[in-house]
Amino acid sequence: MSEFSSPQEPAGVSSSDLFLGFLKVGVSGFGGVMPFARRMLVEERHWMTEREFTELLSLSQFLPGPNIINMSIIVGSRYQGPLGSLAACLGLMLMPFLIVLALAALYARFDALSAVRDATAAVSSAATGLVVAMGLKMARPLAGTAWQVAIVVLGFVALALLRVPLLWALAVLAPLAVACAWWTRR
Amino acid sequence: MRLVDAAMIPPVLVELAQQFGALSFLTIGGVNAIIPEIHRRVVDIEHWLTDVEFAQAFAISQASPGPNMLIVSVIGWKVYGFLGALVATVAICLPTSVFTYAVSHVWNRFRDAPLRAAIQRGLAPVTVGLVLASGYVLARSADETWVAYAITAVTAVLALATRVHPLWFLVTAAALGAFGVH
């Protein structure tokens, strides 16, 4: 098949290794876990090469679902099958899930304090800025291709301005975009 | 499933599972891309959260470590406590995880297929359009004053122009907000 089925040390990674490795990734990343996943998989634990990681990332991004969760599923399955996927995914999600609920509970308690309320509102404004920046960064490499720019604009208008349900927008835009990519392939 | 629903499970948990389960396969490129759709379902259709609460849930999820899909956990928590959080999180993760598990084994066999390249190249601008729409919808629901819009704009520009760790923007904004700049 591919590199995925011939890892460097196929026998070396247990389900508890997967759980602990992804547990660490889960608590490390603020606003983006992927750089920490790369560090853990490639540099610290040597579970895969740089090239394998790049392929893994493109597959995780392409598949529906949160990228980092897809990545944990694929890495887990590579070493330990379904149990490995479960261990990696649980490891990844456990601490962030508990921490976010603790924060939500704290917030609900201190909501009445205007300082807490205003701080949260400001964080939400800044976090929105980060989303805008991420969208623009991702848009940069597409700027030279007319049909790609058109798809970006169509998607933005449909979802942001017209508030079309996502499923309808995707049902039109995705096949259209893939067809454009197919016609312009080299 | 129907029989069990009727007897034991609170209807709102079933609703949560349905709403987020239906979103699972739409999260191409991550949860930030489907913020407008989550907003539409959770605020406009179900009225589980107000606009302000939605913005707060987003802020809380951004202030936590880990995957950015945690906004779903916070929404679940607001609707039905810990159980709601668990149901919403599992509902949005499970369908795509099972799919990923199945597909990852097949996909690598077609690494060099032209159709695979076309799909990847085609979906890139779709994802970008979704993320930019998310930024717009979030700004409309989170930013109520011109200072708030300014914080969003300055953060976006600095995040684009510098390599400062994203957390610093959130910490700075929290400090500004706490000291009454808003």
Topology:
The complex is a heterodimer of chains A (186) and B (182).
Chain A: H1 15-28, H2 34-44, H3 50-62, H4 67-110, H5 114-139, H6 146-161, H7 166-183
Chain B: H1 2-7, H2 11-24, H3 35-45, H4 51-62, H5 70-107, H6 114-142, H7 146-161, H8 166-178
Helix pairs in contact in B: 2-5, 4-5
Characterize the structure shown.
- The complex is a heterodimer of chains A (186) and B (182).
- Chain A has 186 residues and is mainly alpha-helical.
- Chain A contains 7 helices and no strands.
- Mean pLDDT of chain A is 85; it is low at 1-9.
- In chain B, helix 2 (11-24) packs across helix 5 (70-107) and helix 4 packs across helix 5.
- Chain B is mainly alpha-helical and 182 residues long.
- Chain B has 8 helices and no strands.
- Chain B has helices at residues 2-7, 11-24, 35-45, 51-62, 70-107, 114-142, 146-161, 166-178.
- The mean pLDDT of chain B is 87.
- The radius of gyration of chain B is 19 Å and the shape is globular.
- Chain B has a domain at 2-123.
- The interface between A and B is large, with 97 and 106 residues.
Outline of this structure?
Chain A has helices at 15-28, 34-44, 50-62, 67-110, 114-139, 146-161, 166-183. Chain A is mostly helical and 186 residues long.
Keywords for this entry:
heterodimer; A: about 190 residues; mainly alpha; about 0% strand; flat; disordered N terminus; B: about 180 residues; 8 helices; about 75% helix
First-residue to last-residue Cα separation of chain A? 25 Å
Q: Indicate the radius of gyration of chain B in whole angstroms.
A: 19 Å
Radius of gyration of chain A: 20 Å
Query: Mean pLDDT score of chain A, rounded?
Result: 85
Largest β sheet strand count, sense and barrel closure of chain B: none
Secondary structure: helix percent of chain A: over 70%
Estimate the strand proportion of chain A.
under 5%
What would you call the quaternary organization?
heterodimer
Distance between the termini of chain B: 49 Å
- The low-confidence parts of chain A are 1-9
Strand segment count of chain A: 0
User: From the helix content, strand content and strand pairing of chain A, which structural class follows?
Assistant: mainly alpha
Which series of helices and strands of chain B comes N to C? HHHHHHHH
Shape of chain B: globular
Helix content of chain B: over 70%
User: Low-confidence parts of chain B lasting 5 or more residues at pLDDT below 50?
Assistant: none
Number of helices of chain A: 7
- Tally the helices of chain B: 8
Morphology of chain A: flat
